[in-house]
Amino acid sequence: MSHDFPAVDELNHLPEYERRELIEDLVVKEFRNALFMTDHEEFALDVGFFDLGLTSLRLSEVKLSLERKLGREISTAALFGHPTAGQLIDHLCA
Questions:
Q1: What is the DSSP letter of 12?
Q2: CA 78 to CA 6: how far, in whole Å?
Q3: Which InterPro entries does the UniProt entry name for this protein (predicted)?
Q4: pLDDT at site 8
């Protein structure tokens, strides 16, 4: 579990807007890491994973890391059905 991310129990008890903000920060951080981007580089939430330059392997690594940190499974179908970071965040917050 990341030290800067709340435990799953804490996350589930946060108000919706705070939970969404934390999930968005986590998702963006994971994608930035996978793409070797700095925190200062602009990350587009509405661009497809593969258009950003991710490979299937790197996307799988992001998925596994998010699952571990969020304490929940993200199905491959959900991942490919929500092919941008913004859509994935919406799905994870639903």
A1: H
A2: 24
A3: ACP-like_sf, PKS_PP-bd, PP-bd_ACP
A4: 64
